[in-house]
Class I SAM-dependent methyltransferase
Amino acid sequence: MNLAYRLAYRLGLTPWEHAGRVFADQLATLLGAVAPPAAGAKALDLGCGTGDHSIELGIRGWSVTGVDAVPLAIDRARAKLPIAGADVRFVLGDVVNLPAYVERGYALALDVGCFHGLGDDQRAAYGAGLTAVTEPGAQLVLFSFSPGRRGPLPRGASRADVERALGGWTVVGDTAMDTVGAPWLLATTEPRFFRLVRR
């Protein structure tokens, strides 16, 4: 999948960036439900792409680390900095081996479409790594398509898939995405937002 994303960024075929703008208001509401950060509280943006969600978290007061495996995406994200009042850095790294790329102590993690493209073994490694770098009580907001075969699109993930990979976490929210105004193809994937808390 990493090679496909690298090629997509090279060719400028990044429909997920447009999709992220479509549901920005709903995501903002979900993030607004997370307790405001204490001074210096750290957030992690998994599969951050060109960094828009990382920057939004930084503007909300989080100290943010965005992680992505595509060099061009990270370059474009870094080109958006500095943003006044936003404490954000971008790291070229692999979400299935987070402890190798980021420090510990994160209180919030955001995943807008990364997990649902991973294979089963990768999901297990993602879950173990995320648990290792977050604090007890940390929250995760995760966006996913419903499971299904859709050609080049990510295979999606069900609530059971999420719970299996994130055994140290509890699902506390499961909300269908509001697909009004979304591109037809996105609406057919029955996308959802999961909210989890680390035990």
Notes: The chain has a mean pLDDT of 89. The beta strands are 42-46, 63-68, 87-92, 106-112, 134-144, 169-176, 192-198.
